[in-house]
């Protein structure tokens, strides 16, 4: 199941209609999945659900755009998972993970698996600082100083939203290095 979902997400990212292009697959999804799998192992979560949700957490952004991707994503995921005859109870858990992964809109996880997706998504920012700069320059039109401050602030917020000590252990060296390099 995980491989079928990975392949589906990769295909969607390769399409010319993909809102963020193939970079989102290689530079974001792969990192989220890696971190989610590691946290699932450490914390005893349903690893299959976590990996499926990690692959699908931003599918709404790829297909429909970022604004409401936490709403469109669960619908896309449900349709695809039903096509693959995934168990309905697991579909509901995957949908919850996707819907609640976006802390910027005030959503909170209702399950261990959901919190893992939130944290794996946050951790991925430290694996792709160049991508955050790209967004600041290209999509947000920020100056170099504005981009530096924006990236520093975003990484600090991501660090502060981490609830699991395991998450902080995983990313602490990168967090400290980033804060040192990005201080004003």
Salient structural properties:
184 residues; mainly alpha; Hypothetical protein af1432; 10 helices; globular
CATH superfamily, by name, is Hypothetical protein af1432
- What ranges have pLDDT less than 50 throughout 5 or more consecutive residues? none
Element pattern in H and E: HHHHHHHHHH
Q: Under the CATH scheme, which class?
A: Mainly Alpha
Radius of gyration: 16 Å
The domain tally reads 1
Second rung of CATH, namely the architecture? Orthogonal Bundle
Summing up helix and strand content along with how strands pair, one would put the structural category as mainly alpha
Rounded mean pLDDT score: 91
- Kindly identify the CATH topology: Hypothetical protein af1432
User: How many strands, which pairing sense, and closed or not: the largest β-sheet?
Assistant: none
Number of helices, counting only DSSP H or I runs of 4 residues or more: 10
Helix content: over 70%
Report the strand count: 0
Q: How large is the share of residues in beta strands?
A: under 5%
Q: Quick one: overall form?
A: globular
Q: Give the distance, in angstroms, between the N- and C-terminal Cα atoms.
A: 46 Å
Describe this structure in words.
The protein is mostly helical. The protein has one domain (2-182): Hypothetical protein af1432 (Orthogonal Bundle), CATH 1.10.3210.10. Helix content is 77%, strand content 0%. It has ten helices and no strands. It has helices at 2-14, 23-43, 47-56, 59-64, 69-83, 88-100, 112-127, 129-139, 144-161, 165-182. Helix 8 crosses helix 9 (144-161). The longest helix has 21 residues, at 23-43. The radius of gyration is 16 Å and the shape is globular.
């Amino acid at each position: 199941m995980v491989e079928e979902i990975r392949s589906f997400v990769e295909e969607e990212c390769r399409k010319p209609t993909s809102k963020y292009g193939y970079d989102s697959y290689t530079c974001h999804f792969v990192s989220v999945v890696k971190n989610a799998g590691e946290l699932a192992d450490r914390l005893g979560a349903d690893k299959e659900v976590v990996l499926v949700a990690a692959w699908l957490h931003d599918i709404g952004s790829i297909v429909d755009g970022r604004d409401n991707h936490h709403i469109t994503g669960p619908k896309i995921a449900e349709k695809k998972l039903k096509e693959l005859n995934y168990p309905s109870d697991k579909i509901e858990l995957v949908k919850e993970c996707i819907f609640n992964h976006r802390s910027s809109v005030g959503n909170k996880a209702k399950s261990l698996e959901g919190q893992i997706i939130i944290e794996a998504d946050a951790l991925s920012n430290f694996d792709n600082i160049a991508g955050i700069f790209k967004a600041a320059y290209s999509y947000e039109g920020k100056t170099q100083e504005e981009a530096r401050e924006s990236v520093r602030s975003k990484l600090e917020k991501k660090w502060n939203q981490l609830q699991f000590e395991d998450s902080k252990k995983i990313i602490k060296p990168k967090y400290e290095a980033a804060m040192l390099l990005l201080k004003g």
